[in-house]
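Q: What residues go here?
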């Protein structure tokens, strides 16, 4: 009976689907275990073999936990809103919903083929109205909440209104906008409804504000920082500029300290925690107000070194700072305007990363030192960011390297005075940035003090004169929540006199309307500006035609949509109760599942998804909807499976003449010589002669070398790996059908010795990220078809530790495929099942229980690669022992089940069992089978091992010596001599000396 993976895998995948084998219950008495993969976006490219790595690992854990008696929730769904689908819609005219559904169908087909134990009955899609209805509801809750610093949590906005009605806002300790005007209870009660609404917007957890955003004109939308790479959009590589827009924002900054403290309570990698700590960026220092000369305006700064205030030499504002246009003098206006315009074309990330370039412009304005009253020139510089701190810094060149470099770069120019030194240290070569080892000098009442005492003293004095106070600051900024896109969640918001109004939750969802175009409107409005039925009838409580807008009962709806992270910031809770129409999840379901026990996904989401998810979870906990403070107990970041790209090296003419050779392919050494030497004259003579002959057809110059250098370029060209065999040879028959490689087929090939025809081109392999754009993608469908899903699963785990990057090598698949066939042959021969009821030997028990112990420990420690090695060892041992015993082979089938579930199911069924092996208890290691009763001793003579002997571990030293001395091999080795000494260490060595 042979092992046919195709029939077996199809059979059991059908069985699991029909019997809902992996459906989890919300009412089980079993302990719960919730294992989750990061929300996938269903791209049109489908899965490559790198994508399932984390899914296979989580599936092994999910299956193992079921075996161990847990009620396991292992769901899957799709983060199906997003920019890629919208861009495809713009290019093709297809509705994003159509292409998204097609992509999901492809993903589902591929996922099913690999045999994951997902509870598909709980599938969610963020682009379905029955899902984003609840995302809209959460947005409304955020709008109707404020953050009370006294209770350190979010509360209903009604509690804030109650305080205003009784006390005004003087005693309110809230996270809110800066510089809110104070008012009394009587004033509040006398305000109009509109005035009250405007004030409340300054306190709400989601609010409208004019914000500096990353605007991508080509895409017509705002981009998050993590959607920008090297100053251009990640999607399409389009320029991004900084621009002020009125946007919805979320006060994630209110949760900065809790987000920091929560990291100490969760089992995440230290690298991810450190990324979040750095992103949150806690700093302790002081806020200082500098008055502007001849003005009533202030420049507020936050500094971690208030002790250095007497060393302030100049001030720097972010080019986007609102004061720049107000304080710039006429003489400096042209230079400042030009600099501001240039800076707008650089992303914040680019500006932060560029530590080498020094640039700035003097505004012509001066601030006043709080204590000396000396004038301080005010500059603008792109190393200061409007959204970080206050968008202004007090520059102390003697104590800060960047300020030091800036001051020296502009030394002697208008507005840049000499550097002031306030340390009893030399700063002639560099700034002194240490917080110790100095005494302050030239610092008035701080003279003689160090960092700690100086900081304490200056804060006291700043508070006395009303120009500063101690403060803790965070780098974390409020998250912009608006996107000028079509394919996203609509806001449940309409506008009355320009003020946002929330639609009552009972009328949700507000469904995304149909539009004719997915681009912004001609007058620059977001794509929803193209919708003709996009107004809110506040009487009928329904969406109606725009033509009916009268701003009396029918009002315009919000035209922006929510960002991609909206739906993914709470999705794990929806899985707990995926079909609840009234709530995002019931209180009972939330109480039972609590949060995710194991979360597996990429580390690239450290400061995006993972931070926003924690923020929303904490908010929902504050408002009584989520049961826990943190969403994900344990997080594992799987490493990347790298692709093996295939390259040919090409020397190509630039002449375009029909008589010229289009391309000559080079071997690796010739290519390296060319690119390293930078000249074609170092090419071997035969190649030079070949090119020279071709050039002579159309090159009149006698200097052939000059012609060659001028008319040829050399480059590396990627070949789709699907056309390359394991010997690195290109399949030219298949390649010839691909238009991308038309030129290559007419090329000659230089193999290092001579120019030959291209009937056998050898490619060079390089390991890099697996990507469709690099032509190095391996399709998991092909592996499943050729070798089986169980082989794919085992091989991906076998490649190396889960959290490390590792290269894919299809050649290694055959070894794992052979292992499964060897496993099968333990149970079957050509005539069928050969399993017996014979009692196993002690060695068979030992092999099995050694494997039980190893696999159990490995899964619990997420060391899946070493389990596969142990399976191979065990099967080899049992095959050598010709083991056919049911008492060994039944537990072995269960052991293999989490890794290779299809073959395990078939083995379990063929052994005569009903139902799925996934419900059977996992084997338990019995240590008694691992206790060694015998030891194979090496027997040495004068330190050289001559033979081995197996002896009982119960023997005493005299008994061991008696047996060894009587052994024929010892007698022969001694040849009549008596050893001077016999050294015996029980359980370790036997050595006869002399």
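A:
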């Amino acid at each position: 009976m042979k092992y046919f993976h195709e029939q077996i895998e199809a059979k059991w995948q059908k069985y699991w689907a029909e019997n809902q084998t992996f459906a989890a219950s919300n009412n089980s008495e079993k302990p719960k275990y919730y294992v989750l993969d990061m929300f996938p976006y269903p791209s049109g490219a489908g899965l490559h073999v790198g994508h399932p790595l984390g899914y296979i690992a989580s599936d092994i854990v999910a299956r193992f936990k079921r075996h161990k008696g847990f009620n396991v929730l292992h769901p899957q769904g799709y983060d199906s809103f997003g920019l890629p689908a919208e861009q495809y819609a713009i290019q093709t005219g297809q509705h994003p919903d159509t292409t998204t559904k097609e992509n999901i169908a492809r993903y589902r087909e591929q996922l099913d083929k690999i045999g994951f134990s997902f509870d598909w009955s709980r599938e969610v899609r963020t682009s379905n109205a029955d899902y984003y209805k609840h995302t809209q509801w959460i947005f409304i809750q955020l709008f109707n909440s404020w953050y009370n610093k006294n209770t350190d949590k979010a509360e209903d906005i009604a509690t804030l209104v109650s305080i205003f009605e009784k006390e005004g806002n003087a005693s309110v300790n809230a996270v809110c906008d800066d510089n809110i005007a104070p008012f009394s209870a009587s004033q509040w009660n006398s305000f109009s409804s509109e005035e009250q609404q405007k004030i409340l917007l300054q306190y709400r957890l989601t609010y409208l504000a004019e914000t500096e955003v990353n605007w991508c004109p080509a895409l017509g939308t705002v981009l998050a920082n993590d959607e920008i790479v090297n100053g251009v959009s990640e999607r399409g590589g389009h320029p991004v500029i900084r621009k002020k827009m009125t946007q919805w924002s979320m006060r994630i900054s209110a949760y900065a300290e809790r987000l920091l403290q929560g990291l100490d309570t969760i089992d995440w990698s230290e690298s991810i925690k450190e990324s979040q700590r750095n992103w949150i960026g806690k700093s302790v220092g002081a806020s200082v107000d500098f008055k502007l000369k001849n003005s009533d305006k202030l420049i507020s700064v936050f500094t971690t070194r208030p002790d250095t205030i007497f060393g302030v030499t100049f001030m720097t504002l972010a080019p986007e700072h609102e004061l720049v246009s107000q304080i710039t003098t006429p003489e400096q206006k042209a230079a400042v305007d030009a600099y501001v315009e240039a800076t707008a074309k650089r992303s914040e990330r680019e500006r932060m990363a560029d530590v080498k370039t020094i640039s700035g412009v003097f505004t012509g304005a001066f601030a006043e030192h709080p204590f000396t009253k000396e004038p301080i020139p005010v500059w603008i510089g792109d190393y200061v960011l409007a959204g970080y701190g206050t968008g202004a810094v007090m520059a102390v060149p003697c104590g800060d390297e960047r300020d030091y470099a800036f001051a020296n770069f502009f030394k002697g120019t208008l507005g840049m005075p000499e550097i002031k030194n306030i340390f009893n240290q030399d700063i002639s070569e560099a700034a002194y940035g240490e917080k110790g080892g100095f005494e302050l000098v030239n610092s008035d009442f701080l003279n003689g003090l160090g960092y700690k005492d100086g900081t304490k003293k200056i804060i006291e004095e700043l508070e006395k004169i009303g120009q500063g106070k101690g403060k803790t600051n965070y780098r974390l900024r409020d998250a912009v929540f608006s996107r000028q896109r079509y394919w996203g969640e609509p806001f449940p918001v309409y506008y009355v006199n320009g003020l946002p109004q929330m639609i009552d939750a009972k009328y949700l969802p507000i469904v995304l309307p149909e539009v004719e175009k997915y681009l912004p409107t001609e007058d620059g409005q977001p794509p929803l500006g193209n919708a003709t039925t996009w107004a809110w009838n506040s009487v009928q409580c329904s969406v109606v035609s725009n033509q009916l807008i009268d701003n009396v009962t029918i009002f315009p709806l919000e035209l922006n949509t929510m960002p991609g992270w909206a739906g993914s910031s709470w999705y794990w809770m929806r899985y707990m109760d995926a079909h609840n129409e009234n709530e995002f999840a019931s209180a009972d379901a939330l109480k039972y599942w609590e949060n995710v026990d194991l979360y597996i996904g990429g580390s690239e989401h450290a400061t995006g998804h993972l931070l926003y998810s924690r923020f929303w979870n904490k908010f929902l906990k504050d408002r009584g909807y989520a049961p826990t403070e943190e969403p994900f107990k344990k997080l594992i970041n799987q490493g990347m499976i790298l692709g093996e790209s295939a390259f040919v090296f090409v020397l190509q003419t630039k002449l375009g003449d029909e008589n010229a050779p289009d391309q000559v392919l080079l071997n690796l050494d010739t290519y390296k010589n060319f690119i390293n030497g930078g000249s074609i004259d170092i090419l071997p003579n035969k190649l030079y002669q070949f090119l020279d002959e071709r050039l002579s057809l159309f090159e009149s110059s006698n200097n052939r070398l000059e012609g060659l250098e001028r008319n040829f370029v050399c480059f590396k060209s990627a070949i789709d790996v699907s056309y390359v065999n394991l010997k690195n040879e290109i399949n030219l028959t298949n390649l010839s059908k691909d238009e991308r490689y038309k030129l290559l087929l007419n090329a000659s090939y230089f193999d290092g010795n001579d120019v030959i025809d291209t009937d056998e081109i050898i490619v060079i392999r390089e390991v890099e990220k697996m990507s469709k754009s690099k032509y190095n993608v391996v399709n998991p469908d092909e592996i499943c078809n050729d070798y089986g899903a169980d082989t794919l699963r085992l091989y991906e785990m076998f490649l190396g530790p889960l959290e490390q990057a590792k290269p894919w090598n299809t050649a290694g698949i055959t070894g794992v495929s052979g292992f499964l066939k060897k496993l099968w042959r333990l149970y079957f021969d050509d005539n069928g099942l050969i399993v017996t009821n014979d009692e196993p030997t002690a060695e068979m028990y030992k092999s099995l229980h050694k494997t039980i112990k190893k696999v159990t420990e490995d899964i619990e420690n997420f060391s899946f690669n070493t389990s596969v090695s142990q399976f191979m060892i065990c099967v080899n041992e049992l095959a050598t022992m010709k083991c056919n015993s049911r008492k060994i082979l039944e537990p072995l089938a269960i052991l293999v089940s989490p890794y290779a579930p299809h073959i395990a199911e078939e083995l379990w069924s063929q052994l005569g069992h009903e139902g799925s092996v996934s419900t059977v208890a996992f084997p338990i290691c019995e240590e008694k089978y691992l206790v060694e009763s015998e030891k194979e001793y090496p027997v040495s003579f004068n330190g050289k091992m001559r033979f081995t002997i197996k002896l009982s571990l119960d023997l005493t030293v005299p008994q061991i010596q008696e047996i060894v001395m009587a052994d024929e091999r010892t007698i022969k080795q001694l040849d009549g001599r008596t050893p001077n000494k016999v050294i015996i260490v029980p359980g370790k060595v036997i050595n006869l000396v002399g």
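A: Context that may help when evaluating the design: The longest strand covers residues 641-653. The two ends are 60 Å apart (CA to CA).
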